[in-house]
Amino acid sequence: MARSFLLIAGLIIFAYGSYMPIKAQLSQLLIRHAWHESTYSGEYVKPWSWADTYPVMRLQAPSQEEDLIVLAGDTGNVLAFGPGLSRLTPHTNHSSTWLISAHRDTHFEFLQHLKVGDFLMTTNLDMTIQKFQVNDINIIDVTKQDIILDDHHATLKLITCYPFDALVAGGPLRYVVTAEKYQTFLY
Question: CA of 125: how far to CAs of 41, 78, 95, in Å?
Answer without folding.
Answer: 9, 19, 16
